[in-house]
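Support reply, case 0932

Customer input (verbatim):
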Amino acid sequence: MLLNHIPGAVPSRRCTSLHPPEVSFKLIDLPTTLSRTRGKDIPKVMAEIKGPKGEMSLSIPSFLTITPDETGQKATLSILDQEVPHQRAMWGTIRALLHNHILGVSEGHVCVLSMVGVGYRATIEDKASTVKATYPGQKFVSLKVGFSHPIELGIPKGVVASTPQPTRILLEGVDKRIVTQFAAEIREWRRPEPYKGKGIFVNGETIKLKAKKIK
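Our regenerated output:
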């Protein structure tokens, strides 16, 4: 689905991919609630996106309107008041989230982590000794990155992890936020350092090496 902003006070933005035929995009009315929180927006519509990789949903702010065209291939996003900074900010944010969700259910999101360092390696395990499973069938990433014991991390629900090489971790999932957040959590155990170039690098990340300080 091609998502465009209605031309107005701010430049229009558009995503570059078309909604694949195997992906369905539907707007669902949310039930009205009697309780209202002062200053808090109450969404009235939810976007439901389904595809071969899974399904995602996103609550749409009440001040934003999504209007699909007759073919269902495109949709226009408009806001209630272009002079309100928060509405203008959410205009682009919602478009970006919808675009990510469409890509997620059709192609999936991927993060590749490369481990650089002597003895650095990773495996995917069915059980862990230092952390407990948070859902049935959960697997764990086990890292050997220079500590006296392996680091064990539970793989979030909706993320598939594999190790095509001992020094490479492949993360795949429908939700981009969850995939990238887990990649960042893994990276935190050995952030790339600028003197020896060792660490865990995400998606082709590079680091400029510094000269060693000589006393």
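We compared this against your earlier run and they match. Two observations from our side: The helical segments are 85-106, 176-187. Confidence is low (pLDDT under 50) at residues 5-18. Please reopen the case if you see a mismatch on your end.
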